[in-house]
């Protein structure tokens, strides 16, 4: 399985990266990179 390293931000403002997590992405790695995928700890 292919994975992508996504940034984990504190909030949706994306002003502070907490860490990065490797997440399974199937074979669509480029699609996820181009769309700017990220994870957030705080609700919108």
Order of strands, widest sheet: 2-1-3
Kindly report how far apart the N and C termini lie.
30 Å
- DSSP E strands, number: 3
Question: How many helices does DSSP assign?
Answer: 1
Apparent shape: elongated
Supply Rg.
Answer: 11 Å
- How many discrete structural domains? 1
Estimated structural class: mainly beta
The average pLDDT score comes to 90
SSE string = EEHE
Sheet with most strands: 3 strands, mixed
Percentage of residues assigned to helices = 10-25%
Strand content range: 35-45%
Poorly predicted spans: none
Give a structural overview:
The chain has a three-stranded mixed β-sheet. Helix content is 14%, strand content 39%. The chain has one domain (3-40). Strand 1 and strand 2 (17-24) form a beta hairpin. The chain contains one helix and three strands; from the N terminus they run ββαβ. It is elongated, with a radius of gyration of 11 Å.
Question: What tags apply to this protein structure?
Answer:
44 residues, mainly beta, three-stranded mixed β-sheet, 1 helix, 3 strands, 14% helix, 39% strand
Concise summary:
Helices cover 14% and strands 39% of the residues.
Structural topology:
Blueprint: E1 3-9, E2 17-24, H1 29-34, E3 39-40
